[in-house]
Design goal:
By secondary structure, the protein is mostly helical. It has a single domain, classed as Multidrug-efflux Transporter Regulator, Chain: A, Domain 2 (Orthogonal Bundle), CATH 1.10.1660.10. The protein is 71% helix and 6% strand. A 3-stranded antiparallel beta sheet has the order 1-3-2. The chain is elongated, with a radius of gyration of 19 Å.
């Protein structure tokens, strides 16, 4: 998905693979997850808010922290936590690319053996 100035709640839910009700719950629990709202009350998420939500999801889902633990972690070391999240995501992407390369290499080797 291309980067946009604002994302609607449905788009954010799809990007993060969570429900819209989860996002509405998180905005009540974490001030940094609060989207802007237009005059009609439509939630509009910025790229910055989306990144905050990614970190919150990482702490809740991947690190299995409770809401209070996430609040504490973000209060104590928000920058370090966000940095750790970014590193882990980059490593996951590198792993995926390496697995794809390995599969391509294996395919090439299988084809070479058949010839």
């Amino acid at each position: 998905m291309a980067k946009k100035l604002y994302y609607k709640i449905g788009e954010v839910a799809e990007i993060l693979e969570v429900t819209q009700s989860t996002l509405r719950y998180w905005e009540k629990e974490f001030p940094q997850a609060m989207p802007k709202k237009n005059n009609a009350g439509t939630r509009l998420y910025t790229e910055e808010t989306l990144n905050e939500l990614r970190v919150i999801k990482y702490l809740l889902k991947d690190k299995s922290l409770k809401i209070e633990g996430v609040r504490l972690k973000l209060k104590e070391n928000k920058t370090g936590t966000a940095h750790n999240y970014e590193i882990i995501e980059k490593l996951k992407n590198i792993r995926t690319e390496l697995l794809e390369l390995r599969n391509c290499f294996n395919s090439i080797m299988e084809n070479a053996e058949e010839e």
